[in-house]
């Protein structure tokens, strides 16, 4: 069975209770040790508080991805490019929070590294492959980062169009010189092997189509057969020999 493809987080938020997290969000209710992950005291809420994450779903359209998280004190300025995580059901005013969490969001297409998971543990716990971003109350907060895998596969229809030597319908009446220039654009470098037109054709592109047509040598089928005729004399002679006798 193929391994499931990890999806970058598309959001991190704070929820007053697990049921306050909207659809598509998952509240982190337990630590890696199995203890209740209630962060209410760390956020200044007596009733409770939980971190929750959103991945957007495997079938969701590409959107922003969480690329970094920071846990800062309430006296620290907001880092440039970061936003304070939202609160569900709504922000509560007049409540002091000693620690705040900021996240950095970037479009998925422009993201090289993103956050894929978020976990809570006791302060003395160490999580392999996870990076500790800070502490809130009696808990340590860890995130897992990794490279964003981007598909480089090209649609088959687009690839077939590039392999076609026939110019687009709108270019049927274009000059041959423009067609050769169009071909040089259709065939980019593939797998590290560059493509370019032969120098003798490149030098003709700016001199007009007549010069190119003058250099064309049209051969008939008889000329081609005569030029590339190969009688296969050696092969036929070898095939006609009798196989050696077996003693």
TrEMBL record:
InterPro entries: MABP, MVB12A, MVB12A/B, UMA. Residues 6-147 form the MABP domain. GO terms for cellular component: cytosol; ESCRT I complex; late endosome membrane. Keywords: Cytoplasm, Endosome, Membrane, Protein transport, SH3-binding, Transport. One of its GO terms (molecular function) is SH3 domain binding. The keyword Membrane applies. Its main location: cytoplasm. Belongs to the MVB12 family. This is Multivesicular body subunit 12A. The gene is Mvb12a.
């Amino acid at each position: 069975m193929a391994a499931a493809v990890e999806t970058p987080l598309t959001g991190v938020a704070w929820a007053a209770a697990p049921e306050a997290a909207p659809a598509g969000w998952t509240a982190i209710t337990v630590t890696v040790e199995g203890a209740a992950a209630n962060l209410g005291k760390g956020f200044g809420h007596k009733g409770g508080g939980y971190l929750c994450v959103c991945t957007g779903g495997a079938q969701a359209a590409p959107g922003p991805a969480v690329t970094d998280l920071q846990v800062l004190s309430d006296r620290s300025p907001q880092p440039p490019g970061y936003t304070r995580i939202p609160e569900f059901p709504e922000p509560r005013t007049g409540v002091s929070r000693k620690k705040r969490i900021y996240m950095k969001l970037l479009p998925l297409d422009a993201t090289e590294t993103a956050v894929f998971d978020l976990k809570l543990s006791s302060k003395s716990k160490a999580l392999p492959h996870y990076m500790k971003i800070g502490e809130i109350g009696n808990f340590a907060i860890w995130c897992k980062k990794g490279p964003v895998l981007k598909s480089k596969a090209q649609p088959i229809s687009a690839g077939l169009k590039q392999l076609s030597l026939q110019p687009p319908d709108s270019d049927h009446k274009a000059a041959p010189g423009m067609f050769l220039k169009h071909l040089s654009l259709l065939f980019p470098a593939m797998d590290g092997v560059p493509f370019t037109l032969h120098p003798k054709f490149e030098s003709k592109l700016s001199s007009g189509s007549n010069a190119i047509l003058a250099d064309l040598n049209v051969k008939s089928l008889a000329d081609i057969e005569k030029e590339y005729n190969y009688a296969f004399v050696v092969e036929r002679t070898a095939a006609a020999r009798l196989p050696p006798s077996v003693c």
